[in-house]
């Protein structure tokens, strides 16, 4: 699959998730065969004002190419200037625009999914950004703002006409947040009206779902977000199923535990032990979801403060679970 001039090896992508898809986790997903990685969403204004927490969000490892940095904002000039700055300073492959975030703080600032209510403004943002950088600009948006305003189809055409080189559509409205079932029909309708690649997002939980979304919606690619939490192996599974129809078994407990410790080591290296281990608590809960007797481990992990403690807990877990 090609996005502008960028070739993607696999059409299975890791959906951006603020607070989850940081550099260590993305590196792991790339190793598992994820075709395109996205940064967590980054505020264009925060980059402009040199917010110190923003720097880490823009960092990525060289193995992450091709990577999209996702920006959010509402001012076309600031968005265009920051796209250029981010490209110049990081050398990323794609700049993606977040036009789907449902969080009130973001929407009230006329950012994220608010932009679905103002197609003219959204168009100006895309056009200015596309003119500001030589790399592809892509857009991620939703089905619409609420059930009275389902405009993904016209929004998609607007995005294409404004210069977007790929779009990703999450089949829920802003009002729905992440609840209920994603509407794949709207994703299919979007695919029918544009010529740029379309990626579907929403409720792809396993290899069969991915294949079904591609078959039913005729999309060029699929995006996996929540189902990838604690399960980077999903990319290996989906790729094998899409390419050869092979169903790969989920890894056993020893492999899961080995991955948790490796992930933790990378988090500690990237964020320091204090933050890195705290970040790992939620990942451990995801990694061990559904495992027999894992609730004790999940409860105990919330008290863990050092890598050593985590290692002891996980090694004990291997024997007890
Ligand atoms: C915790 C969380 C954080 C998210 N952060 C972002 C984000 O920063 N940018 C974005 O475009 N989408 C974000 N999303 C939306 C996902 O990328 C995806 O479109 C959505 O979760 C539906 O796909 P899924 O069913 O595979 O999870 C987030 C979703 C979750 C659950």
From TrEMBL:
Coiled coil: none annotated. InterPro entries: Aldolase_TIM, DUS-like_FMN-bd, DUS_fam, DusB-like, tRNA-dHydroUridine_Synthase_C, tRNA_hU_synthase_CS. Pfam families: Dus. It is an enzyme of class 1 (oxidoreductase). The active site is at 101 (proton donor). Keywords: Flavoprotein, FMN, NADP, Nucleotide-binding, Oxidoreductase, RNA-binding, tRNA processing, tRNA-binding. SUPFAM superfamilies: FMN-linked oxidoreductases. Belongs to the dus family. This is tRNA-dihydrouridine synthase.
């Amino acid at each position: 699959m090609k996005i502008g001039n960028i070739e993607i090896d696999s059409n299975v992508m890791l959906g951006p998730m603020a607070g989850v898809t940081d550099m260590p986790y993305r590196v792991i997903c790339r190793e598992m065969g994820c075709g395109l990685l996205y940064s967590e969403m980054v505020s264009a204004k925060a980059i402009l004002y040199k917010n110190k927490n923003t720097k880490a969000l823009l960092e990525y490892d060289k193995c992450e190419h091709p990577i999209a940095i996702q920006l959010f904002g509402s001012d076309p000039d600031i968005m265009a200037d920051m796209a250029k700055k981010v490209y110049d300073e990081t050398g990323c492959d794609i700049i993606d625009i977040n036009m789907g975030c449902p969080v009130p703080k973001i929407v009230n600032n006329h950012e994220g999914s608010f932009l679905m209510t103002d197609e003219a403004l959204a168009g100006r943002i895309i056009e200015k950004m596309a003119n500001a950088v030589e790399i592809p600009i892509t857009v991620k948006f939703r089905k619409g703002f609420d059930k009275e305003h389902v405009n993904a189809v016209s929004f998609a055409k607007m995005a294409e006409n404004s210069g977007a080189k790929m779009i990703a559509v999450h089949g829920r409205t802003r009002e729905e947040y992440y609840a209920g079932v994603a509407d794949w029909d709207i994703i299919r309708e979007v695919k029918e009206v544009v010529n740029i690649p379309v990626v579907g997002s929403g409720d792809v939980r396993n290899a069969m779902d991915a294949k079904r979304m591609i078959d039913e919606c005729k999309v060029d690619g699929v995006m996996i977000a929540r189902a990838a939490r604690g399960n980077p192996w999903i990319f290996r599974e989906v790729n094998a199923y899409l390419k050869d129809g092979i169903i790969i078994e989920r890894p056993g407990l020893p492999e899961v535990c080995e991955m948790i410790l490796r992930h933790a080591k990378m988090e500690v290296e990237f964020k320091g032990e204090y933050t890195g281990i705290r970040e790992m608590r939620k990942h451990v809960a995801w990694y061990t979801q559904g495992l027999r007797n894992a609730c004790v481990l999940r409860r105990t992990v919330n008290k863990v403060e050092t890598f050593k403690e985590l290692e002891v807990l996980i090694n004990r877990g291997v024997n007890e679970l």
